Amino acid sequence: MSQPGEGLTTTQAPFIEEARSAGKKFIDQPYDLYSEANQETWRKLYKQIRPTWDKYSHPKFLEGVQKLALPPDHIPHLDEINRFLEPLSGFSARAVSGYIPAYYFFDSLRMRAFPTTITIRDGSKLDYLPEPDIFHDVAGHVPMHTDKQFADVLVRFGEVARSAAGFAAEIKDHDVRIQKLESVIKAMARFFWFTVEFGLMRRPGGGKNDLCVYGSGLLSSHGELEYCLESPRVQRFPFQLEWVVNQYFEIDHYQPLLFIVDSFDHLFELIDELERWMPIGKLGNVSPGEPAVNEEDLESFMNAQVGMTAGA
Ligand SMILES: [Fe+2]
């Protein structure tokens, strides 16, 4: 049994190991388990990033931080976050034990539930993130979920995933179905990566070259948040769907290539376009490379298809 204060440190939390081995994906947030070291890690991360947010983040993100009353001095209780969040956009942050296979992840978004990691990174390696943690998920993602328009974008991702499952179910030949599905999932994952995780946007009311950040991978990294807009080593291009769905990415270093959307309306239109491209075969052979689509991801889409057929 887990003990109060023993810690919920990423990759070192017995509570999470127990939940995973019991096959539990959605869990509670056992708040008493956070150690003083965990709380100190949150405080340091928040203090370090706060001025960087003020300078580089999208105004809606800053509004979100305020609307959620995101605490600087302790790890947030998800219940408290949700009390502020749900009335604003219908979204809620739901604690998970770790990785959620792709279809279930997107389908959760469709139902306005955001799978949320509750562990926090090791305080001795603040900039090292072996997997998402609560700072990435709650401080990086959730403030954007307070915005209705952005929340609707996430719901659209879930709908596109559903379309993808339906599209794959129509393909009779098993091998062709797997190949096409793998390609479509890769395209969706790349789209998600270059928007929700690492997206740049023209600053509302700003000049032509005035950019801000709405992507959560950037908004939860003090170092990369500045680097992504200031460094001459980063290439920043207007978002082009053909390019993005064919562009591999690597997760273990600062991103060298980022894409800019004009507005949330623009982002919404791009997702519509992504969905339209599926049945006309434009996502069926995207370029190979990262991200890998694993067995669990594929199965999650295949099982969704079985569910849909059974329910039809
Ligand atoms: Fe993320």
Account of the 3D structure:
The chain has 312 residues and is of the alpha/beta class. The protein has one domain (14-311): Aromatic amino acid hydroxylase (Phenylalanine Hydroxylase, Orthogonal Bundle), CATH 1.10.800. It is built from 13 helices and six strands. The protein has helices spanning 14-21, 36-56, 59-67, 78-89, 102-110, 134-141, 148-169, 174-197, 216-219, 222-230, 241-245, 264-277, 295-311, and strands at residues 92-96, 113-117, 200-202, 211-213, 235-238, 257-261. The strands form two sheets. The protein has a four-stranded mixed sheet. The chain has a two-stranded parallel sheet with strand order 1-2. The protein starts with 13 loop residues before the first helix and ends with a helix. The structure holds fe (ii) ion. Fe (ii) ion binds next to helix 6 and helix 9.
- Write down the secondary-structure element order: HHHHEHEHHHEEHHEHEHH
- Helix count, per DSSP? 13
**SSE class:** alpha/beta
Strand numbers in spatial order across the main sheet: 4-3-6-5
CATH class category:
Mainly Alpha
Radius of gyration: 19 Å
Please give the alpha-carbon distance between the first and last residues.
44 Å
Query: Would you report the number of β strands?
Result: 6
Largest sheet, in brief, is: 4 strands, mixed
State the helicity in percent bands. Answer: 40-55%
CATH architecture: Orthogonal Bundle
Query: How large a portion of the residues is in β-strands, by DSSP E?
Result: 5-15%
Query: Mind telling me the CATH superfamily name?
Result: Aromatic amino acid hydroxylase
Look up the CATH topology: Phenylalanine Hydroxylase
* Unreliably modeled segments: 308-312
- Mean pLDDT across every amino acid position: 93
Ligands: fe (ii) ion
